[in-house]
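anyone seen this seq b4? input:
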Amino acid sequence: MLYWLTALSDGGDFFNLFRYITFRAGGAFFTALIFGFLFGQPLINVLIQRQGKGQPIRNDGPETHFAKAGTPTMGGLLILSALLTATLLWARLDNAFIWIVLLVTFCFGSIGFADDCAKISRQTTAGVSGRVRLSLGFLISGVAGYVVTTNHPEALQFQLALPVFKDTLLNLGYIFIPFAMVVIVGSANAVNLTDGLDGLAIMPVMIAAGALGIIAYAVGRSDFTEYLDVHYVPGSGEILIFCAALFGGGLGFLWYNAPPAAVFMGDTGSLALGGALGAIAVVTKHEIVLAIIGGLFVVEALSVIIQVLYFKATGKRVFLMAPIHHHFEKKGWAEPQIVIRFWIIALILALIGLATLKVR
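predicted toks r here
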């Protein structure tokens, strides 16, 4: 919205700053951060009043989690509110990619919100059925995948870009749409599975968003893509503003989610933010790189899949408990120890993912 202040510029004054994506990204970051600090506690107070007993705790979970009973959930509303406010304020609203990523984020957030409401009202860890959640997720991501690819340059439409291999594209045809659906839905559910300890999911999400924001800015500039030998996606640079807003809103939320958490993100936040990461990867043609940058989420999701399949086949467990962060809890690791070590892993993976921009 503030981008239109450039109409008041003569090219050499303050208003000219609004032409620059980097300046507006900084504005989006601080707007979302301040929003989180200002409205975090009031939102928590409302959630406590409305939810009563708070988020239900798994009976078969680690014993240390029973002390968290009564903690309110749906803290993702704070992140999403900050994200929406900052993005609408600082991004170019004539950019199709911004609207696609926003719609994916808030549609997945709505699924998560319904799931959180069901859990709270029934006081059970079982919310909306997995089949319904997946069906809605695939529908949303299918529409998003098609709209994104039709907004790509013709040479990139329905193509899968391979990292490291210079100028390599695989023409998937219309199979690209189901592929994009798997990327977005898989990302949403992987982040959702990771959100099991205080502060565990939000920092890796912020790290991934920061890395994807850099990638979006790079592939949105023809001079950068020529130097890096990556594919140019006109308009994708504006996604940096969304990522900066997500980072700022995430920091504002982490202030209240740091151990011991005053509020949980809930499915409202985890599904929305995971879906956003997947959508950004599809927009920037970095779907495979997302698996590297978000490798922590991939491992969390795989640990659940492996556990379920192995148990069905043998009646035995590979891990003491899945997702894998609970396995380490069962082994005696302290919660802050797990969280910080997982943050370190997420940062290392993000740096490896960014390195693919130059390694050709």
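Residues 292 and 341 are 17 Å apart (CA to CA). The chain is about 65% helix and 0% strand. kinda curious what u guys think
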